[in-house]
Amino acid sequence: MPQALVFSEYGGPEVLRLTDVPLPEPGPGQVRLRVRAAGVQPFDNAFRAGFARSFAPTTFDRGGGPQRMGTEAAGVVDAVGEGVSRLAVGDEMLGWCDGAFAEFTLVPEGQLAAKPAGMPWAEAGALTASGQTAHSALHSLGAKDGETLLIHAAAGGVGSYAVQLAVAWGMRVIGTASPRNHDYLRALGATPVAYGPGLADRVREIAAVDASFDAVATDESLRVGAELAPGRAGTITGDPAHDAEMGVRWLDTGRDLTSLDELLGLYSGGKLAVEVAGTYSLDQVVEAMQEVATGHVRGKVVVTPA
Question: For residues 302 and 263, what is the distance between their CA atoms, to the nearest angstrom?
């Protein structure tokens, strides 16, 4: 039988277990994807720990069975459900879904786009969620051509996409990161700055900031963002009430094929790189999630079930 990662109670990585599951059958409008790669998000750790319970309840919260994990995947269409017209068995696709940490998962046809020819599976599995989060958040922030944008945690999964999108859209980018990632940020087109005491002054020495995008939500990043870009500081993480008290609003992180197609176009045109920090097998998901939990990953961690 195929395997999937599940959990039946909130907690640390120890609540996760790899279990045999029935081969899922696609319903109307769905395809079955044989997963080749699935990106790991900071959200996955928060979801498993119960921190997202108020807006993302689990199946066991709703009286169902164990909860599966993983929100982005790339793989090969293995079967199609009734009414599927755009995809066929054998198509290589990537997109957003539920239950990506598995050998097989079901995905609505409208949440998948074609994997570019020659794109490695690990990169395909790491693009969708963080790339679309960055895309939607920057639009929500109103960031535009000619502005100077401060990005906190600029070398991380979401941050590195935000840097590249902002540069592609004509913005000047200042990115916070540890010194070991400064050359990486320069290669992406950003001016790097180290976080820590005196951050606001260091940013001011580089340029005045029009807007701030926060992908980490520490007290320092929230305070500096609100100070340097009052009224135009936004985040995608942390606690909404606390962030608001600090003067930072939550940004939209929606998903749609239009934004995914733009990301894939930039990738195919050489204007968007996918940084894979490491790959793990399906039985190493705990280790993968622990690496992401350190908060010091450059780019994305990826699980490769096949």
Answer: 18
Give tens-digit pLDDT for 52-74: 888 889 999 888 889 999 999 99
The contacts of residue 139 (CB under 8 Å, 6+ apart) are 252
Phi, psi of 130 (to 5 degrees): -70, -40
- Which sign, positive or negative, has the C-alpha torsion 47, 53, 57, 60? positive
> What are the structural domains of the chain?
3-115+275-303 (3.90.180.10), 134-250 (3.40.50.720)
Give residue for tokens 């995608």.
236
Token pair listed for 107? 């995905």
Q: What are the tokens at 130?
A: 């963080």
**Buried (b) or exposed (e) across 14-42, using 16+ Cβ within 10 A?**
ebbebeebeebebeeebbbbbbbbbbbbb
The structure's pTM equals 0.93
- Residues of the chain whose pLDDT is less than 70? none
Under a CB-based contact definition with an 8 Å cutoff, are residues 245 and 253 in contact? no
Strand spans (E) along the chain: 3-7, 17-20, 30-40, 67-68, 72-80, 92-96, 104-108, 112-114, 148-152, 172-176, 191-193, 211-214, 233-235, 249-250, 276-280, 300-303
Residue type at position 257: L
CB contact at 8 A, 38 and 303:
yes
Question: SS3 for 283?
Answer: helix
d(CA 98, CA 96): 7
Calpha distance 214→238 (Å, rounded): 10
